[in-house]
């Protein structure tokens, strides 16, 4: 389905076309007055139908009979759900460029139902756990969302650099842990121009420097 200027998708009207391509970006104007750049494909499949205002409205109207919200006080589970919606659909959210801005959304069942979200992910195991995704380029869904430790979530960020050694890909922290080498030592060696394989082969070294330095 082609997308043209003037086409309406829910609350959005296309006002400018971007370059053609598999992830073509178009500019839309929401009924609330907000402009936003979105993927044309997300419009045609019904994934994006507002600038985020509709889902924010639904969140505000969501039932509070689950016992996780009392006035302004919320539980960690409720806050995790609310922040997940915001980062995907609220363009004013600080994290939006890394989620909704990249086309990441939330499954339909969770968009206006905290109860459905809680049933699928369960209560937060510990204070060290946050909501994360197994596949970071896909939506928040029951199959792709889980409670991860903060360390696990940090490793799964799109900004975390990954290193491949002998066909295995891990972040610097994981390689350091596996080989018993300090993170600062590995970081120093990489900055000196060594590959991760070379940096690991040097072992512990002395004073955080390569053995041959």
Account of the protein in words:
The structure is a single chain. The chain has 213 residues and is of the alpha+beta class. It has three domains: 1-51, no CATH class; 52-160, no CATH class; 162-201, no CATH class. The protein is 32% helix and 19% strand. It contains nine helices and ten strands. A four-stranded antiparallel β-sheet has the order 1-2-3-4. A two-stranded antiparallel ribbon has the order 5-6. Helix 2 runs antiparallel to helix 3 (76-89). It starts with 7 loop residues before the first strand and ends in a 12-residue tail after the last helix.
Short description:
The chain has helices spanning 40-44, 53-61, 76-89, 108-111, 114-121, 150-155, 172-179, 183-191, 196-201, and strands at residues 8-9, 12-16, 25-30, 35-39, 69-70, 73-74, 129-133, 145-149, 162-165, 168-171.
> How many domains, as an integer?
3
What is the topology, as strand order, of the major beta sheet? 1-2-3-4
Multimerization state = single chain
Radius of gyration: 22 Å
Percent of residues in β-strands:
15-25%
Biggest sheet details: 4 strands, antiparallel
Morphology: globular
- Uncertain runs: 206-213
Measure the end-to-end span.
Answer: 60 Å
Mean pLDDT: 81
Task: Please report the number of helical segments.
Answer: 9
Run of helices and strands: EEEEHHEEHHHEEHEEHHH
Query: What is the strand tally?
Result: 10
Helix content: 25-40%
Structural class: alpha+beta
